[in-house]
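Let's study a protein:

___
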Amino acid sequence: MEIDRKTFLDSLGGPEAVSRMDSEARADALESHMMSQLNQSKGGNPSDPQKETGKYPSVAEVEEQIETRKYREGVGFLYVPRTGENVRRLPPMPASPTLLDFFKFRFMDTSNHVLQSANLATKNGMTEEIILVCLLHDVVQEIIRTDHGWWGAQLFEPYIPERVAFAIRYHQALRYYPDPSVGYEYPDMYRQLFGADYVPPPYIQATYQMVRKHPWYMDARHVTVNDLYAFDPEAVVSIEPFIDIIGRHFRQPKEGLGNDGSPVAHMWRTIARPDQPL
């Protein structure tokens, strides 16, 4: 997928606004933009008022916009569509929802990307656990975007092997660091969009150093290999090839996700009922 640098920077308020973001926020914004472009390619791109006027906000104007919004930029995509459209009424969830039900009814914004990622991992001969990581690694962005690796691992921890949760949690930090042994290079796109002196924040640096020495390092690394390049707008994806893998490695609670009293049940209920006011 080709990314128009100017369009991307303008979507964040222009180069000055982007320069005030830390590297983690920029990387998450880039992935969000790529997912948005992928999803919009299926239904047409909405008009861009900035392109029409040719006028872009200053840093001060961007900051002034904060108090005019009813949301913050880190909110998930179930709550604020990337396209700027009104939210749509969601179909009701089954009484005892399964992971497949969430893919069908709630992971509508992120599912195309993660299915592409899982398909790519399959083609690359990855293990079933790595394929499962690729299938799950970004769906938590339906409710929150900030530090989505950590949030995503927490969402799934009660139901998946510890090693899978590890890879979900730490794929986020490894995106910034090349590993020639698996053919992963620091993306040229990052240099183009963020600059040659792009430095991750200290907690990402510390996390990388820890994970690099961990026995499960390569599990998280394989997610980065099968993640950043899985944004093909022409790809036809389906959950069907992964149903057996889910059955073997995902511990589906009999009560249904959100009803099992686990420490993360509230997160599943939040995804299931995003229109609930309290």
